[in-house]
Structure of DUF2490 domain-containing protein:
Amino acid sequence: MHRIWIPAAVALLAAAPAHAQTEQNGQAWFAVNAVTALSDKVDATLELHTRVDDSLTGLTQLLVRPSVSYKLNPNLALTAGYLFFRHDPEAGRTTNEHRVWEQIGYTILSRPDGLRLTGRTRLEQRFREGGETGWRVRQQVRVDAPLHTASKVNAVIWNETFFGLNDTGWGPRAGFDQTRTFVGLNLPLIDRVRLEPGYLNQLIARPGPNAMNHVLAVNFNVRL
């Protein structure tokens, strides 16, 4: 295993702020990410996500996220997109949120043996009918490492931390919002399709006890 792998994993796991009191919940997240090339430098992506709670009684969240990316060079890309987010809890009011977002994606390290360290910085503008615009920034750092020389299976760990930039009347607040840490595998299935299953820990800041979700996360990545 690469010498950088364990220190990087420890650093990403430690990135989540510690809180003494949290409410523990179980969830399952399923996603399909489909990417197609519009030209040598432009990609179009459509992401579909569903999330259910630990009762598994039905859909609680649906996310639809189309986007377009422009590659400035092999290690730097600019992306702009839209997101529709529907939250339909088993008990409570259904809400719809719309987001416009911009992102810079970059490669920090890429070695011939397959080890990759990448990052992305995303700015979101969040809208609900009749409410103020909520501004939020998201920072992700990700490590991909082959399990052994010439392996097509990668170990994956990433952390993404969210910070609100302003207060709104409908929910979002300025300051630390949440952090997510994922540990899993990236597996080839068939040509241009990879499966990424793993465990995701989500810590959400709230006015009362914070929430911690223990998530079974399964992602299908498709290149069309």
